[in-house]
Amino acid sequence: MSSVLTDGTLASTVNGLRFLNPFIIGSGPPSTNATVIGKAFAAGWGGVIAKTTSLTDTHVVNVQPRYGKLQTPGGETIGFQNIELISDRPFEDWEVDFRKVKDAWPDRILVGSIMERYDKARWQELAWRCIKAGCDSLELNFSCPHGHPESGMGAAMGQNPAMVKEVTSWVVEAVGGRPVWAKMTPNITDIRIPARAAKAGGAAGVAAINTILSTVGINLKTLRPTPTVEGHSTYGGYSYRAVKPIALRMVGELATDMPGFTISGIGGVCSSVDAIEFILMGSSTVQSCTGPMLQGFEMVDELGEGLAAFLAQHSFANVEAAIGKSLPYFATHHHLVELQGARKAAKAAELANRDTEWGKKDFVAEAGQLVSSKE
Ligand SMILES: Cc1cc2nc3c(=O)[nH]c(=O)nc-3n(C[C@H](O)[C@H](O)[C@H](O)COP(=O)(O)O)c2cc1C
Q1: Same-domain check for residues 7 and 135
Q2: Does the annotation mark 270 as catalytic?
Q3: Out of 127, 134, 140, 213, which could bridge 102 as a Cys pair, Cβ 3.0 to 4.6 Å?
Q4: Of the candidates 265, 272, 262, which has an alpha carbon nearest to the alpha carbon of residue 311?
């Protein structure tokens, strides 16, 4: 394991939580039980968002196959689709796992991810039981795009700002000051609206983005969409490399709209370059889910080495110093046109000043242009 992951080089404090490094496993298969979470921490990840869980009587039945890949003609995977649901494990098993993991890895940040139906008592019970079992903080899944939205959960809630605010406030009330992040769905026209609602409900930050609603392909022999289950499919969540540009844009929109509000960036992080881009766009921590699924937990070594080298190259004292540093370079398209016009005018003025240009127009007027206006 790379030493920069644990020696303090990349350490930061976010919402009062001390991260040894800003790299967090995003909620999903790489955080689906104590065994895999332990492997992530052993590899050096600073935090883990556990696979989303709900109270035991919530109906969760997964199908097989439930993943699909988008590949280039050369065979490289650039996009990944899943129709996986939240955890199908009893919540009581999660309580045992949370305790086991936190006892074994006290210096890492363990975040519980929760999702429930629109019921205050259920959200609050789930929240405090996670904290009691050892979670440092919580992420609220307002963003799962398939399966549960049919029953008003996940993205269905995340697309309703009033609900986001209310449910966030229920959880904040239940967890006694522990930070709560709301995970945003990208399947909405303006991601700033639910994020503002989460903040108004008392969230300490947001995680963005969850997967983008998609269908990864159609089998041209059978005419069936993939992944195909009993001859049928359903729209699922798109992730990995291909979604990064969309995620970066959304993180940038959030960071610009709510300066100083915590953002945990996620979507297509496969390398240190990707992770640094999320930090420059305003993320204080960076999550990856499909990355470790396809590349292994050890990918965090390259994330750490690359980020440490970047900070040194730009003389940033720490991760915090780099957060949002690319945001000032965004403007409206209208302003880009103005900037370009101003540059062209400056260049023309500079050219006109050269000796080779003398005599192309009226010589006396050219000389007159160089006379100080005060004389
Ligand atoms: C197979 C799979 C299962 C996922 N399950 C969850 C989940 O239970 N809860 C959640 O909040 N996000 C879930 N996600 C979404 C990821 O945490 C992440 O937001 C998304 O995949 C984009 O990041 P990535 O490109 O790094 O994977 C899942 C993603 C995948 C690929």
Answers
A1: yes
A2: no
A3: 134
A4: 272
Q: Apex CA 273: angle with CA 272 and CA 276, to 5°? A: 80
3-state DSSP percent of the chain in helix, strand and coil, to 5: 40, 15, 40
Cβ–Cβ under 8 Å, residues 187 and 212: yes
Same domain, 87 and 151: yes
State which of 78, 140, 209, 239 you would mutate to test the pocket of ligand 1, scoring each by most atoms of that ligand within 8 A of its C-beta: 239
Q: Which atom of ligand 1 lies nearest, measured to the CA of 82?
A: 1
pLDDT tens per residue across all 375 residues of the chain:
999 999 999 999 999 999 999 999 999 999 999 999 999 999 999 999 999 999 999 889 999 999 999 999 999 999 999 999 999 999 999 999 999 999 999 999 999 999 999 999 999 999 999 999 999 999 999 988 887 888 888 899 999 999 999 999 999 999 999 999 999 999 999 999 999 999 999 999 999 999 999 999 999 999 999 999 999 999 999 999 999 999 999 999 999 999 999 999 999 999 999 999 999 999 999 999 999 999 999 999 999 999 999 999 999 999 999 999 999 999 999 999 999 999 999 998 887 778 888 888 898 988 888 888 665
125 and 144 share a domain? yes
- pTM, two decimal places: 0.94
Pocket of ligand 1 (CB under 6 A): 26-29, 51-52, 80, 82, 84, 86, 113, 141, 143-144, 183, 210-211, 237, 239-240, 243, 266-269, 288-291
Judgement on whether residues 37 and 157 belong to the same structural domain of the protein: yes
If we measure between CA atoms, which residue out of 135, 38, 48, 47 comes closest to residue 91?
Answer: 135
